[in-house]
Queue: 2 jobs
Job 1
Amino acid sequence: MYTGVYRLEIDTKQRVPVPPKLMRVLRENKSKHLFMTRGMDRCIACYDQQGWDSYQSRVCAVDMAEKDKNNLIRELIKSAQKVKLDWKHRITIHNDLMNWAGISTQRAVVVGCGEFFEIWDPNEYEEMKKDQGSIYGTKPPL
């Protein structure tokens, strides 16, 4: 399971290192590549093969008769890119996904989300955290 929050540097070739804790999960799942796509928020969602297969199954189970759902599925699947990790355990973020997530700096926040992880622009991540407070009221759930 992908867990934790990591603040990382993006190099000039748009590569971000996968944190060691997340690399352990990738190794356990015997995955040498990731599928990157638009997240449901303004971020990039990253799945290993097992997580991607599960994600696609859930997405394809949605009733495609509804136009809005069909358009959402089309956007999520068409933006997906299979990315191989390099020998330093870095992944390259393509321009279209960088633009989608609003990543314009050389920094990123990586957030573990269970069967996948997200890559955020630091400012977008802080804004999301502010909005998240309203989900729980004034106190966190735990």
Note: The first strand starts at residue 5 and ends at 9.
Job 2
Amino acid sequence: MNKIDRDGSHAYIRLQEIFDEVKEGCRDRIDIFGTVKFKIAYKKIDGKEYRVAKIKGNTITIKHTAVTILPKSALKYIIAHELAHVLVKDHNERFWDIVRMIYPKYNMGKRVLERYRDRI
């Protein structure tokens, strides 16, 4: 893993590259329009210890520790999960269908995330 600069620039680059892979990978199933920005959180998100990421508008906020230690599959899952929340707030069947369209291997990424949960 690359050393993260104090300003998080390597983290932003990594997230953008992973987002580009997600976007390219789902192009034949779903179009992702517009620009997605990333914000790195160095503390809790919304004061919640367990929260790894959230989306507000076109900005996905992700914990710094998640960006630095998680494998690509888990970060792809997080990005797909947050993008699906643009269309569906609740974690219902429609939500998971959208996550699957964005990242078909989301179950693998979700499992990887759970294995790292105590380190984030």
Note: The two ends are 16 Å apart (CA to CA).
